Structure formats: structure tokens, C-alpha cells
Amino acid sequence: MTASEGGTVLIVDDDREVVRTYRRYLEDTYTIREAYDGEDALETLDGDVDVVLLDRLMPGVSGGEVLDRIREREYDVRVAMVTAVDPDFDIVDMGFDDYITKPTTRSELRETIEELLTLDQHATDVREYHSLLVKAAALHEGKSTYELDENPAYAELKSRISDLEATLESEAERLTDDSRFVATLRAIDTSITREETDG
């Protein structure tokens, strides 16, 4: 597979060494674009970009602001936040598709990108379900059971997951091609729920 066949990845980080490292991890498979701040990212982004690896904390226009503008402009692009910021409950309403906490590895980056590229083949509800599960898993990793139980944003997140599961169940026939993918996502949700119960 050539780099162009693997898809186009935009790496956004104000640390140039981080960008160079990610490029080395990915350039044998993907076409790589680079941006070193939020404005640069928005200027570099176009309809040919498939995945954005977006640093959350940058001077000037933050990663969160970049994400908001990407969604406002309705680019059909998957976005992974790659950040040293431990997830807090504010991520519930953020429009990212995946969340990676630095430091990350070559294999984690590549697996995340492949998963996000796969999401493009699935229905909107399936992609949203994936995004919600990512948020739940990130919060479960960074918060205590008590914090999760007491936080209304997390309760709302779990409610949204439950509602979307019901929607996916009712759409099962239409989503026949997505059934294996949905089953995998549900296994993730079951794992999260089990850990919460055990905790």
C-alpha cells in the first residue's frame, strides 16, 4: 500500500519534535501534512484530509477551538485529540472521535488512525456511538468511581450511550454491514460497565 492509498493525516502540534516523531511513525503508510498552531491547522485543512491528530493545548488558537471550527465548517474528517491533558468532564461535549493521552506510541497512533478510517465506512449513528464510548473510557481511566457516580455530565453521557444502543438495535437490519463493528463497540461498553461495577 502506498502512502496515498493509506489516507491523509494532518498532524497539529506546536512542538515540532512531536510532529517530526509522529511523521516518522506514519509516513510509510499515510500522506502527512503538518501544522504548528491552530491557525495553521485551519489553513492546511481541506476536504482531502481524512484524519487530524490534534494537540489540545497550543498557544493562540487552542486545539479545542480548532475542533469547534472544524465541526462548524462541517468537514467530514475524523479528529483524535492527542494531548498531555488528563481528561475531565468537559470532554463530554467536545466533538472529537478519539482521545489519546501523551506520551503515545507508534502502535497506538497507527491503531487509532486505522480505526478512525474504518469509521468513515459506517453510518453516522455508529460513528457517534464510537465517539461516546471513547469519552466514557477516557473518563473512566482518569476519574474515580465516586467522581463518575457524582457527576451529572457523566450520567448524561451514559444515558446518551444507552439511548444510542437502543437506536442501533432498532436499526439493526439497515446496519447489517456494521453489525460486527457495533458488536465490537458494545464489547468495549460492556467492559467499561463491568469495571465500574467491580470498582
UniProtKB/TrEMBL annotation:
Pfam families in UniProt: HalX, Response_reg
Classification via PROSITE patterns: RESPONSE_REGULATORY
Organism: Haloplanus aerogenes
Record domain Response regulatory: where: 8-117
A single cellular component GO annotation: protein-DNA complex
Protein name (database record): HalX domain-containing protein
Family matches, as InterPro entries: CheY-like_superfamily (IPR011006), HalX_domain (IPR013971), Sig_transdc_resp-reg_receiver (IPR001789), WalR-like (IPR039420)
GO molecular function, one term: phosphorelay response regulator activity
4-aspartylphosphate carried by residues: 55
Membrane-spanning ranges: none
Assigned keywords, A-Z: DNA-binding, Phosphoprotein, Transcription, Transcription regulation, Two-component regulatory system
GO biological process: regulation of DNA-templated transcription
SMART domains with a match to the protein in the record: REC
